[in-house]
Amino acid sequence: MSRTASNITLVCYDITSNRLRRKIDQCMKDFGVRLQLSVFICRLDADGVARCRDRLRKILKTHVNEREPDDSLIIFERLNPGTVDCLLGARIEREPPLYEIF
């Protein structure tokens, strides 16, 4: 798998259910490094992003009764190096160009 700086993906989540949050946390540990409690940074190619999304979707479908309306799971893909520098400083100074909200 090719891992370059142009393949940076950021996953952020705010989940109410402790059980669901732990499941997502365990999943994300397989794909990236924790920046904060519910924020992971990953170096993934397109296949890696697809695998990560599939696993997260399966977790969310399995625990559909535990989700609350205010829960969110956001994936920012293909962050440019300037944005990554801002994230590593624990601040997001501008919105990355591509994102999806589950």
Quick recap:
This protein has 102 residues and is α+β, with helices and mostly antiparallel strands. It is built from three helices and five strands; from the N terminus they run βαββαβαβ.
Q: Would you mind describing this structure in some detail?
A:
With 102 residues, the protein is of the alpha+beta class. It has one domain: 2-Layer Sandwich (Alpha-Beta Plaits), CATH 3.30.70.240. Helices cover 36% and strands 25% of the residues. It contains 3 helices and 5 strands, in the order βαββαβαβ. It has helices at residues 18-29, 46-62, 81-88, and strands spanning 8-14, 33-36, 39-43, 72-77, 98-101. A 5-stranded antiparallel sheet has the order 2-3-1-4-5, covered by helices on one side. A hairpin with a 2-residue loop joins strand 2 and strand 3 (39-43). Helix 1 packs antiparallel against helix 2. The longest helix has 17 residues, at 46-62. The chain is globular, with a radius of gyration of 13 Å.
